[in-house]
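Worked problem 6 (solution included).
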Amino acid sequence: PRILSTIDEEMAYMVHEILSSKGISIHVAARVVKIEEKGSSLTVTFEDKNGKSTTVEVEKVLLAAGRTPNTEILGLERTGVNVERGRIVVDKHMRTNLPHIYAIGDCASPYMLAHVAMAEGETAAANIGGQDLEMDYTVVPSCIFTSPELASVGLSESECLKAGISVKTGRFPMAGNGRALTLGEAEGVVKIMADSRYERVLGVHILGPNATELISTACMAMKLEATAEEISDMIFAHPTIGEALKEAALSLQGRTIHLPKG
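Solution. The predicted structure is:
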């Protein structure tokens, strides 16, 4: 078990290490047994995978156990709309089994993300207006607003391996980026994966300052089916965090320029 189970394993490990270095205690594979009030604070008792019990005193408890569609209040059983496990079933046009009913967002989407819901809304509106537009989920950015920020798009390294895709990987540490150094936020890395034959970018994972902004550049590259060479041929402004993306693309080709020593 690890934190951020849906994120590239290497990136999740780095986040774990960074948070731990900041004094944050992380307990994986732990089961909360009870939570009790103690004056103005709370005590949380949990057990590890071996059954060892630990009690800690905290100010607040945040429950972040995921979400499920809240569709049972909609009265869908009266409409005949198909529902599976609370989620409204739609096709690539965001249309339900009833041609005059469309559904978007958390009630129907495989991704519970606001930016995906907006894209689904645009797709549904276009089709309602008479167009023939399909929703494309191949390039969906995921952002986690930790410190430092974490963002990704496309496949992780393990997903490439499971799919039997031969890949090349490029990495560039934020410690070699001038902007990150001047900000005093040099923890992190940019990681790019591309198919071995054509070096078309399959996934980008960024840990560092402004990662949630830079990921949009990676999304554009993937949407246009760009190669690592095409990214590295771009001129990025200096000094910017974006230069780390170029350097990671160069790293994939064995041509990194500003790799720090040590």
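Discussion: The longest strand covers residues 31-38.
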